[in-house]
Specification:
The chain is of the alpha/beta class and about 250 residues long. The chain is about 40% helix and about 20% strand. It has eleven helices and nine strands. Bound molecules: 2'-O-acetyl adenosine-5-diphosphoribose and zinc ion. The site of 2'-O-acetyl adenosine-5-diphosphoribose (OAD) has 26 residues, from helix 2, strand 8 and helix 11.
């Protein structure tokens, strides 16, 4: 693939990279995205599953749905896109700011990760806020209860109408503002406040590179849009970086 010259120049001089990622980066691992033809939100109603009132009304149903999604995540592997991002740490200061809850960046080896929407493997008690890793929970029919206070245990993910974990959002926004290049990968960029991340990066002077299979809300304001699958484009970028760095050291 022939990348734009301006982008190659940026890759040569950049020190800090941010990858702002969404469901699309995990699509090639076999995890469905939310929007679009086969999107989860076409088949399921977010208001019946991904909000606190729904959980209170029918905790078992919501818990079972997350157990199902955990099963999917558990049975899949990071793909070439996740691995390429992790490998770029050899050459740059890399921060991942993800909207995904699937842990695949961590499993691929990325070190600095901000999780804007939580993590499906973590849970906490809605009453006393004690955290539980998935393995600590006994296998129960339906939703488990807190060992300390008996409260209901919920997944540590951000539901509709809830605030983002502020330390994660601030950390992600800071990294984006300080980045030389901010890659926006596999996200429709329509869910706020997460979608402020690339906007903040751009305002602070970062170079915005979008990688998506189709144009998005962000395409007009991106400095460079690369259309294709992230599992194919990201490894090509890694190869390009390897070539550039090898040349520089000669
Ligand atoms: P979406 O489902 O809204 O968007 C997925 C994006 O990935 C789309 O723009 C696709 O075109 C693109 N895409 C699909 N396959 C791809 C591939 N192989 N390579 C590159 N791009 C590809 O998912 P998000 O933007 O992540 O929030 O959605 C944001 C938030 O909405 C989620 O975090 C979730 C959801 O409601 C919460 O659960 C709080
Ligand atoms: Zn408790």
């Amino acid at each position: 693939m022939n990348f734009k010259e301006e982008f190659l120049d940026k890759l040569k001089t950049a020190k800090k990279l941010v990858f702002f990622t969404g469901a699309g980066i995990s699509a090639e691992s076999g995890i469905a995205t939310f929007r679009g033809k086969d999107g989860i939100w076409n088949k399921m109603k977010p208001e019946e599953l991904a909000n606190f009132n729904a959980f209170m009304k029918n905790p078992n149903l919501v818990w079972e749905w997350y157990q199902h999604r955990r099963q999917i995540v558990h049975n899949t592997e990071p793909n070439a896109g996740h691995f390429a991002i992790a490998s770029l740490e050899e050459y740059y200061d890399v921060t991942v700011v993800t909207q995904n809850i699937d842990n695949l960046h961590r499993r691929a080896g990325s070190k600095k990760i901000f999780e804007l929407h939580g993590n499906i493997e973590r849970n906490y008690c809605i009453d006393c806020k004690t955290f539980y890793e998935l393995q600590e929970l006994e296998k129960t029919e339906g939703v488990p209860h807190c060992k300390k206070c008996g409260g209901l245990i919920r997944p540590d993910v951000v539901w509709f109408g809830e605030f983002l974990p502020q330390d994660q959002f601030r950390g992600g926004e800071n990294a984006a503002e300080q980045s030389d290049i901010c890659f926006v990968v596999g996200t429709s960029a329509v869910v706020y406040p997460a979608a402020y991340i690339p906007t903040s990066a751009k305002r602070a002077g970062s170079y915005i590179v979008e990688i998506n299979i189709e144009p998005t809300e962000l395409t007009n304001s991106a400095d460079y849009s690369i259309f294709g699958k992230s599992g194919e484009i990201l490894p090509e970028i890694l190869n390009e970086v390897r070539r550039l760095k090898a040349k520089n050291s000669n």
